[in-house]
Design goal:
With about 110 residues, the protein is mainly β. It is about 0% helix and about 50% strand. It has a six-stranded mixed beta sheet with strand order 2-10-9-4-5-6, with no helix packed on it.
């Protein structure tokens, strides 16, 4: 099963930006879709963004217009560019693949 490792989380002020990366242990070219989820304390894990192998993209309403998901098949990596960050974006962000793999998560904290 493909292994996923996230990176790029951290502490940022409101209005700031971060780029998360999800590196896969093997090719993601044929994986049907790759997702970013997040889970805030005391809340359920929620889907943030999804990108299919054909390039179809979906976003949660709360991040549309601020976050951008992309994939680089050659680098076996999926990215999540997060702009105009808000305190309510604070969560652990997880990478997920349609073959059932999850990463370990990376913490994003938006605070002044």
């Amino acid at each position: 099963q493909v292994q996923l490792v996230e990176s790029g989380g951290g502490l940022v002020q409101p209005g700031g930006s971060l780029r998360l990366s999800c590196a896969a242990s093997e090719s993601i070219f044929s994986i049907t879709f790759m997702d970013w989820y997040r889970q805030a304390p005391g809340k359920q894990r929620e889907l943030v963004a999804r990108i299919t192998s054909g390039g179809i993209i979906q976003y949660a309403g709360s991040v549309k217009g601020r976050f951008t998901i992309s994939r680089d098949n050659a680098k076996k990596t999926v990215y999540l560019q997060m702009n105009s960050l808000k305190p309510e974006d604070t969560a652990v962000y997880y990478c997920h693949s349609s073959v059932g793999s999850w990463g370990q998560g990376t913490q994003v904290t938006v605070s002044s």
